[in-house]
């Protein structure tokens, strides 16, 4: 063993130990490991930051933006309420999410399948009052399992097929992987359904200031229009759209104020006073096609403006204190609308236009993106953590879905690499305003991308130092004395152990020839050994950095590095126990 190999193993082992210790944030640990590797000469200085240009960084960052666009579109709410209105059991929700992700992953890029379904998981979590961490890691693992079912499901399967063609003259076909891969998917998803609790319930580690100051008791006024789906229906139907997070304080019919009984039938032009979080109010108002109170804001040429809604606090110096929105005629004089008001310790029961505003009230102010900052300054209003909210903004329901579909088609047909397709999709979300520019960089989880960029050159030192070939040599000495099932298990376990430090395709390129040499030396057929390499390389359940699906859920799920082996290690053991006899059954070695 050379000095460079010893140093490479030492840096990686030390880094993994600190990750498992879990006393420091993962991006700081990764950056320290990178600096140590450069200082020891394991990573050349000129390649120190090569990881930040790696495709994986682009894919993960872009997928987060795409997922945010899909979530913001509102299409997820509509799908859940239409197809699964009564799906409340945690296991039933998890089964739906994991099965859909697994099936999609068999035919499209697994990170794309995961990005499609992550917003659904967040909706289930919100409706059930459960942390998203319960859903996200099992979904990521299901995406990896689903990719094992077909030739195009994951990169290791494609590379193994090419290796078999080069070495035997015959490639694996599209569904040669299905018997074993399908069995592993069924067994793995079943395991995840019953043992998801092995991962502690987590909350997002990098909560923003906006989340810390979220207001829970906004009062808003919405009008039932002729196009509303709620006209002629009881008030209870309207409140269902808020999933228990919105209450009605009154219904105003002309000059008559009515109590908000659940069986009250709504009519056109009724004004409903609602109270709840701004996000929940937005779901109710957009889902029922209600119209918020206030004048429609247009530019001087009659063209609809780029409208945004911002939370702001009325300061002591504000000209709004002691006045009403009607009295100030804000929509005419300033071109803004007050959409909601929150008053600490008090329930607002008046029309927003007649409410006398006080110092300390928090309001949602709607206006043009270009002019609203100036209005806030003129009225001495304090933006609440610079937060932009969705209440009163237009949803573009179909655009995010179309953008994601185009990206997936482009990758499936080979028109564009995955990194380029997802980057273009993220750009499309910004260009078509599916994700506002102010929220674009909030969607990208910075610490995750920094961790990836720092870890890639450190992990690659295992290959550049010759450490991977050294492991292969040790492996060869052991495997020759084992029976067929033992050699297959050893190949698979080694691939599982190596793939967090090499990308899964590189793992196949390193381990594939070794597997074939075992088979040739022992007079065995190579198919089961090649399949074992593909399954091991595609079953990276032990770390958040070996596969982009695991990385994608780390930030939103609030997971720690040590959480992955808690669920991933028993799953990996199960995969080995099931796949070895299955491989020998479907792909006999003699």
From TrEMBL:
The UniProt entry, under Pfam families, shows: CitMHS (PF03600)
Q: How does it sit in the membrane?
A: Multi-pass membrane protein
Which parts of the chain span the membrane according to its record? 6-21, 28-50, 56-75, 96-120, 180-199, 397-428, 471-494, 501-522, 567-587
Q: Where in the cell is it found?
A: Membrane
Domain (RCK C-terminal): give its ranges.
206-290, 297-381
Which top-level group of life is the source organism from? Bacteria
- The protein in question is named SLC13 family permease
Q: Which PANTHER family match?
A: BASIC AMINO ACID ANTIPORTER YFCC-RELATED (PTHR43652:SF2)
State the organism of origin.
Rhizobium helianthi
Going by the UniProt record, its keywords in alphabetical order are: Membrane, Repeat, Transmembrane, Transmembrane helix, Transport
